[in-house]
Amino acid sequence: MELTVIGAGLAGCEAAWQAAQMGVPVRLIEMKPEKRTPAHQSPLFAELICSNSLKAARLESAAGMLKEEMRRFGSLLMACADQCAVPAGGALAVDRVEFAKMATEKIEAHPLITVVHEEVTEIPKEGCVVVATGPLTADALAEDIFKMCGGGLSFFDAAAPIVTAESLDRSLCFAASRYDKGEDDAYLNCPMNKEEYEAFYDALVNAERAPVHDFDVANPKVYEGCMPVEVMAQRGKDTLRFGPLKPVGLRDPRTGHRPWAVVQLRREDAEGTLYNLVGFQTNLKFGEQKRVFGMIPGLQNAEIVRYGVMHRNTFLKSPGFLSADYSVKSRPELFFAGQITGVEGYMESASSGILAGRNAATYLLGKKRLILPRETMMGALADYVANSPTKDFQPMGANFGVLPPIEPHIRDKRTRYAALSQRGLTMVSEILSHQE
Hints:
Blueprint: E1 3-6, H1 10-21, E2 26-30, E3 53-56, H2 62-72, H3 76-83, E4 85-86, E5 91-94, H4 96-109, E6 113-117, E7 128-131, H5 139-149, E8 152-158, E9 162-164, E10 174-175, E11 187-192, H6 194-205, E12 221-222, H7 229-233, E13 261-267, E14 274-277, H8 286-293, E15 304-306, E16 310-316, E17 327-328, E18 331-336, H9 346-365, H10 377-387, H11 413-435
Parallel strand pairs: 1-2, 1-7, 2-6, 7-18, 8-12
Antiparallel strand pairs: 3-5, 4-5, 8-16, 9-14, 9-15, 10-11, 11-13, 13-14, 17-18
């Protein structure tokens, strides 16, 4: 009795960990460091490619509800994230290197997990398997997967640049979180007046972009949550001012007034030596990133240690192909997990790994599979992946819209969200208490 997990990203690490914690031996296969995708830079497991933020921390948020559900399931990555957290206001952000290092060490040290470094080019024909190869699945394996499920879908997303703290001009930026929520050093803010913003905007929309290599689809979609800043800007001159550059909740201490626009930098590591540009996912050529982003006050001489890049994300036509336990309907011993299933986001990906790993383990142990109710965030995302009625299936992140409404209706949004969160968390606790 052994479970094979393919891929040691967020979902793969959770799947392997959950199964091993249930007493099932796991063979975890990861192609790094022998082979990497263009987006991967580290040989470590659970690498965070785009942002280092795991979204909102508060329980009355959808992202916070999801993370708390994961904690109650004994999530490996939530334990790592909580220990590697860096100041980020109301969000949970991590030192991405320490986070990946800790996850890797815990996986490698588990007595029931054997790590194998090699590339898998086709799905094993026999045995219980969790495929968690992510949105950048290597071409040969991706082709085999798509033959099985009748084709796949793709979209492109992007990463934001990271700069060194010492290269910033602190006389032109100030430390503050919106509405003074969170630690003062969680964010640095680069304020712009109207003239500075309009000059930056004109340069941004006219900057030269890097070519996008269309791997296997004719018309790739760009996921809204990772929209390149230059693409977003083309929607209108004020789009950024009401989006990632919105100045609300911030006051420039030099003027005492709210700026026309603000570029926020979020701490990337625990020491505060690196910052990433919030909302600045981009596909501009590297030289153009240096030139255009250098127009932002405080970033004139910024040292960019990682330029923004755009890459392909691939996901399955999961509705009708997968069940709500993340197993393949025509092959119940085969599971998929992670963004390849159609969940979107770091923790959403990891949460699918929790359920896929647990259900693979229960399959091997001859126990009843776990399908969470839709009132839980993990259950609602699994249900969306398996049963979404839309013809234009697109990745979905945690949000309260996927949950059944609460009755009687609560008018106040914050109170309603808190009630939805508490309802789901109570259900998770009850389910887990019956499994002990």
